[in-house]
Amino acid sequence: MEHAHLLPCILLFLLLLLPGDNATANGDSDVSSTRTYIVFMDAAAAAAAHHPSPAHWHAAHLESLSIDPARHLLYSYSAAAQGFAAALLPDHLPLLRGSPGVLQVLPDAVLQLHTTRTPEFLGLLSPAMPMPSLDAASHDVVIGVLDTGVWPESPSFSGDGLPPPPAHWKGACEAGVDFPPSSCGRKLVGARSFSRGFRAANGGVGRRVLASPRDRDGHGTHTATTAAGAAVANASLLGYANGTARGMAPGARVAAYKVCWPEGCLSSDILAGIDAAMADGVGVLSLSLGGGSAPYFEDTVAVGAFGAAAAGVFVACSAGNAGPAGATVANSAPWVATVGAGTLDRGFPAHVTLGPTGARLAGVSLYAGPAQPAMLPMVYGGGRDNASKLCLSGTLDPASVRGRIVLCDRGVNARVEKGAVVKAVGGAGMVLANTAASGEELVADSHLLPAVAVGKTAGDRIRNYVYAAAARGNKPMAMLSFGGTVLGVRPAPVVAAFSSRGPNTVVPHVLKPDMIAPGVNILAGWTGAKGPTGLAKDGRRTRFNIISGTSMSCPHVSGVAALLKAAHPNWSPAAIKSALMTSSYTVDNTNSSFRDTAGSSPANPFAFGAGHVDPHKALSPGLVYDISTNDYVVFLCSLDYSVSHIRVVTKMSNISCPQKSRPGDLNYPSFSVVFRNKPKHVVRYRRELTNVGPAMSVYNVKVSSPASVSVKVSPEKLVFKKLGQKLRYYVTFTSKVVDPNRAKPDFGWISWVNNQHVVRSPVAFTWTM
């Protein structure tokens, strides 16, 4: 190397460099345009480089790219991580990212001793968020979680520092098998179980059912602690995601209603749970379950949620995990907050290195056992038929698999079950490769053997490698490696591929889902009765687990809703939901519009609704779209439901429907416009906004519409003279599509804007065939 003789001097300089001396290190005219990055390097490449120390190698690596280490290299890491920190210019980044041996380049970030990551990601720990006062106010809010029960020994249910339960709380801590009444306290204020419907459906007994609120599944404990878990220091899953775990509303109370059992959740039990929760005095209900595409009067969750909303209880429901297919969204009633899932800026990197080519493909994993730091033979389809490519139970041939890394296609059976199948027949490791259905979505799992999950692109590359090696008569080889936990992943958030999508098949005139929240790789409390995979053969036990699903995103919104309810006790559930929706955002941490992990394509409101929840902005939304119980009744009338069907939903004996009503006129914070199959079809909707901001407030409308539609709003200015004032506006949508038979869904936005607030609503346009 031309400047190799300079390395000892460079390294001596670096050893003397103090953290505060960055300007000296960069001391030239390009200081103002540099930014510090952490560059993670491949340890295997370090060994192959034969440098006397990592610091020598890092300096030499920069020099090989014509980046002067004397001016740019800040630190070398070798114990905590393999890599270095450098103050880099923008044109250095592509050089490093394309360089062999470089695994990842992340921008430096200000970090604190912090949480399961989602409170920070949501801005709940920012100085601008009035958390101490909100925590104190939320002591009076009880979040009812309908799920698989609760593990009361979880440290997340510690009531230290909390006052006694609020006076309005009427709930109970029901004794059950392995669940004494003393299981509850000041954080977990109530626990009940409902199994009659389940037992009736299972011959009066129901196998493996214990009459107890105790959670032996883990799902219920995870969702409850996500919503309102107390702060727990040094929480992790076997070393992954280490930090302080805490729920969204750590000052709020939790009441657990066990309505789900090993074989599922019965509608009768769910309705009983909602009924009891309302009588007990919950302020928020969180349901990470149920809800299909039936009319609302046939949907027990919708019916129960209507009663709760009418009583002033905010109800959040998961959108479902049937994505990325369209028209799959569940829990679509307009009186519930339907929550889809997005990613965090935290990752759990792992890699698959292929054979003699040395190609290193990125994936994720939560595997925490002994690593397999060596190349091993790889097999794909180690069985007698194509089912073996899915690694279904009984399809793998032990003779073909033993001692090898097995490539498994994602789909049909559970991800962790595939790993258990591979391990049971002697496989040494697994690569779990996405197909088109999951695209580039990466979901980490705590597998029982060394395993790495990769996206479709990497999966296809590995498949092609295996096929090509076999065609040449060679043995495909691979090595798995694991990188722990990293922060600052970009882009984030990204819509999860599994998150269910609109349009709403029950009522196309209501846009669903409503919003997204963190739902991928979420750390929260766990049961002591199961290992992190949930498999019977998993003997590991951990106080926390990392899992994914809209089940995880739902309690994030439930917890944030509890904070809003504490801050604004007079707001209706509809007002709280409106605040969450109209203040949400649709730009990721690279300042780009949201992407969809299903194919890495741009996402749209059928995937993310109004956007990603932003708790800080939701506290002061400026305006809200409020909806009364009577408004919902008129909405049900517009669906041409019979009076008896409307009564099923509303429990009202006197139903009086107006002569003319349209579902699109429901005062919803979003719009879904359905054009009939004819050119220049016109649709006119009305909305009403309530001022919850300053007494004197003036808003101007801002419209973003696609070329396929013209949009006219009247009036274009709203002048509010007092707090609580309501003003109406009307929107005329005109289709400009010449051939509606060929029209595809399109999207736009209607925003009311002043110097303090942007009150934004998504608009979805569809054309009937």
Helix content: 10-25%
CATH topology of the largest domain: Rossmann fold
Beta-strand segment tally: 37
Low-confidence stretches: 1-31, 109-116
The secondary structure category is: alpha/beta
Share of β-strand residues: 25-35%
Average pLDDT number: 87
Q: For this structure, what is the CATH class of the largest domain?
A: Alpha Beta
Task: Give the distance, in angstroms, between the N- and C-terminal Cα atoms.
Answer: 68 Å
Task: Compute the number of structural domains.
Answer: 5
**Taking strands numbered 1, 2, ... along the chain, how are they ordered across the largest sheet?**
6-9-5-12-13-14-24
**Rough shape?**
globular
Assign the CATH architecture of the largest domain: 3-Layer(aba) Sandwich
Major sheet, described briefly? Answer: 7 strands, parallel
Keywords: Hydrolase, Protease, Serine protease, Signal
InterPro entries: PA_domain, Peptidase_S8/S53_dom, Peptidase_S8/S53_dom_sf, Peptidase_S8_Ser-AS, Peptidase_S8_subtilisin-rel, Peptidases_S8_3, S8pro/Inhibitor_I9, S8pro/Inhibitor_I9_sf
Domain Inhibitor I9: 36-114
GO molecular function: serine-type endopeptidase activity
